[in-house]
Amino acid sequence: MQQLPAVNDARAASLLKEAAGLSVTQVCVDACSPDESHCERSIAIALDQRSAIEIARRYEQLAIFWFDGDAFWIVPVCSRNERLRLPVIT
Fold this sequence. Notes:
A hairpin with a 6-residue loop joins strand 1 and strand 2. The chain has one domain (about 5-85). It contains 2 helices and 5 strands. It is globular and about 40 Å long. It has helices at about 5-20, 50-60, and strands at about 25-30, 40-45, 65, 70-75, 85. The strands form 2 sheets. It has a 3-stranded antiparallel sheet, with helices on one face. Strands 1-2 form a two-stranded antiparallel sheet. It is of the alpha+beta class. About 30% of the residues lie in helices and about 30% in strands.
């Protein structure tokens, strides 16, 4: 379920503040679903996967994008979907 823009903006501001306190590399990015039907402002943070999932859970995110050093993945957080390796080739 998509959140209202004001809710997303408040969460994004809170996440940026939290990330700034982590003293790790971070970059603002636009993250999109594989079919580009949904895009939103996001942040890439240099964290281990477990820590990234813990933060995403606090912000009620359905999934995170994860780079394992070889490939990008969509990793479910508050979703029952399976992990999905990117790019999706049909």
